[in-house]
Amino acid sequence: MQKSESVKGNKNQILVLMSLLVAFSYLGSLIKLQGTIALDALPAYLGALLLGPLPGAVIGFMGHLLTAVTSGFPMTVPLHLFIALMMALTVGLFGLTAKKAGVFLASAVGTFMNGPVSTFGAAYIASLLGLGFSGRIMFFGLILPLTLTSFVNIFGAVALYKMMKARNVIGGHHEIS
After folding, report:
1. How wide is the angle at C-alpha 80 spanned by C-alphas 67 and 76, nearest 5°?
2. Rounded CA gap, 82 and 40, in Å?
3. pTM score, whole prediction
4. Which of 31, 56, 125, 149 is the most exposed place for a label (fewest CB within 10 A)?
5. Per the domain annotation, does 56 fall within a domain?
C-alpha cells in the first residue's frame, strides 16, 4: 500500500496517530444516539483521509467494537463482529473513493454503505442467527437513524480534515479535495 501524501512519517508515528484516533473513537462511542448508533466512526473516516483506506478501516473496526463493548453487546457478539467488519469495509471504501474521486462521492458511498447496505446486512445476519427480533423490524427501525448518523460522522471527518488542511496542520501535497 502506498503511503498517504497527507501524513508522512515512520510506522511508529502512524501507529501513534492510529492509536489516538482509536481513543477518539472510544470517546465517540460514548455519544450514543440510539442503541449502538454512536459517533465512533468519525475518527475512522478522518483516519482514512489522513492515513489511507487500510488504517481508516482498522480504526473503524475498533471503533464499532468499542461502541458494542460500552453498550454490552446488545445484538450478540457475532452480529457486532459482522457490523465491525462492515464498518471496516465502509471506511476502507470511503478512503479509497476519496483518494480516487474526491470526498463528495466518498461521502455518498460511505453514507450508503454504512446506512442501507450495513443495515440490510445486519438484519439478514440477525435473521440467520435466529435472534429474538425480526430482521425486517431491525432494518426498518435502524435504517433512518443509522443513515443520518453515518452522514454526521462523515461530514464531521471531512470538515475536520479540511480545517486541518486549511490551517496547514497536515503538510505535503493533498490529493483529496
Report:
1. 105
2. 16
3. 0.88
4. 31
5. yes
